[in-house]
Amino acid sequence: MDSVTFTSNEFIELKTLVYQICGINLHEGKLELLKSKVAKRMRLTKMNIHEYLSHLKSNEHEVIEFIDTVTTNHSFFFRENESIEYIVDHFNRNPQKAKKQFKIWCAACSTGDEPYTIAVQLENLGLSYTILATDISHSVLEVAARGIYKNDKIKNVPKPILHKFFQKGVGKYKDHVKIKKKIQQQITFKKFNLISDIMKQTDFDFVLCRNVMIYFDNQTSEKVVNKLYKSISPNNFFAIGNAESLMNMRHKFKAVKGMASLYRK
């Protein structure tokens, strides 16, 4: 079964459920993709379409599994690194850097490429830091916590950093690398729903929420952006993806001059 047929009402039910739980806006252009992804989950759960849609309504865990198959977790090390490099340099020029521990939140960390990218650059400068890396998906968090990646993910990593903070795989991991333990120990991976969960911490120096709002409508994006604003300490920074924008949203962030997709509280 490569695809499945469902009625317009069933599509609306599915779309509404996903939107309520994850904030992801599944428009008509995603219909064929959705059909194939529903078929995949039906095969795995051994249910027909009516049983599966009923199962989704009563099981948030299955909704998250389903969302995993719909959203594209395309990530790699040093992706869109300009804004990260700017922040790392800013931290390094802080006159109190020897006494300060910089606090960072990657609010949609996917498979961990982003938080590790930040960590190795901070570590390379000898800066003290902690990183909270969250995602709605437990499966991508498991990948992130393992810290093992195929070589094609690390093509953009500068060679000195690669040799310093990554271990080369052998045997069945011949074409893989593993993040060194000293880096992993600085990062906490945690499940977090940007729509429904509340972040109690309000003193982050840098918050990133990149390449996730492309799945949201404007109303949901605005809600998420203003929630993230509260988690950042005064004068500190917020980054979104290069394909995203805060235009047409009500928010208090100020754009950082000359740096696309980077803002300041």
Automatic annotation (TrEMBL):
<feature type="domain" description="CheR-type methyltransferase">
    <location>
        <begin position="1"/>
        <end position="265"/>
    </location>
</feature>
<dbReference type="InterPro" id="IPR050903">
    <property type="entry name" value="Bact_Chemotaxis_MeTrfase"/>
</dbReference>
<protein>
    <recommendedName>
        <fullName>protein-glutamate O-methyltransferase</fullName>
        <ecNumber>2.1.1.80</ecNumber>
    </recommendedName>
</protein>
<dbReference type="InterPro" id="IPR036804">
    <property type="entry name" value="CheR_N_sf"/>
</dbReference>
<keyword id="KW-0949">S-adenosyl-L-methionine</keyword>
<dbReference type="Pfam" id="PF03705">
    <property type="entry name" value="CheR_N"/>
</dbReference>
<keyword id="KW-0489">Methyltransferase</keyword>
<dbReference type="InterPro" id="IPR026024">
    <property type="entry name" value="Chemotaxis_MeTrfase_CheR"/>
</dbReference>
<dbReference type="InterPro" id="IPR022642">
    <property type="entry name" value="CheR_C"/>
</dbReference>
<dbReference type="InterPro" id="IPR022641">
    <property type="entry name" value="CheR_N"/>
</dbReference>
<dbReference type="InterPro" id="IPR029063">
    <property type="entry name" value="SAM-dependent_MTases_sf"/>
</dbReference>
<dbReference type="GO" id="GO:0032259">
    <property type="term" value="P:methylation"/>
</dbReference>
<dbReference type="InterPro" id="IPR000780">
    <property type="entry name" value="CheR_MeTrfase"/>
</dbReference>
<dbReference type="GO" id="GO:0008983">
    <property type="term" value="F:protein-glutamate O-methyltransferase activity"/>
</dbReference>
<keyword id="KW-0808">Transferase</keyword>
<dbReference type="Pfam" id="PF01739">
    <property type="entry name" value="CheR"/>
</dbReference>
